[in-house]
Design a protein that fits this description.
168 residues, alpha+beta, 30% helix
């Protein structure tokens, strides 16, 4: 998928370095936006990075450089296999507001539909109002909150749970 000079694609284990690069960039640039820390990921072995690609990961590339990422984690239970959680959402700051996040979400939504997912879910920090508004514009609705879901600098921050049904 091409989004104005940006190509979005599902990556494989052979592109683990691009995955590592953009994931660590995201954790460094926006530490409060993620449930894990840069330090948790920087120590992973190459094999552990490859193992994380057993779930779908889409990366946006601009001139061969990774500039955005979005992952999908499917529920394992057979009764819940129609649900998946969107994870690792990040777009480089200079490209925010360009529609790139929408294109990443479209790519992952299309993939989800193709593998039988009927509902996408995600968690977002209650303090990340821009992300919450973005997801609402994309049809996600708040379905709950986890009080103190994330501990950040000794502060408990609620996680907002959101979901969107996939049609067709």
């Amino acid at each position: 998928m091409d989004a104005g000079g940006v190509t979005i694609r599902l990556i494989g284990a052979d592109e683990v370095e691009a995955f590592r690069h953009i994931r660590l960039e995201a954790l460094r640039a926006e530490p409060s936006s993620f449930a894990t820390r840069y330090e948790d990921w920087e120590i992973l072995s190459l094999q552990e990075w490859r193992d994380r690609l057993s779930e779908p990961v889409f990366i946006a590339f601009r001139e061969g450089e990774p500039v955005g990422i979005m992952g999908l984690f499917r529920q394992r239970s057979s009764k819940m296999a129609h649900r998946a959680t969107i994870v690792m959402v990040y777009v480089r700051a200079k490209l925010r507001g360009t529609g790139l996040a929408v294109k990443l979400l479209e790519a992952i939504s299309d993939h989800a539909r193709n593998i039988g997912i009927r509902q996408l879910e995600l968690f977002v920090s209650a303090e990340n109002t821009a992300a919450i508004r973005f997801y609402q514009r994309q049809g996600f609705a708040e379905i709950g909150r986890i009080p103190g879901g994330v501990l950040e600098d000794r502060r408990e921050i609620d996680d907002v749970m959101m979901a969107r049904r996939l049609m067709g």
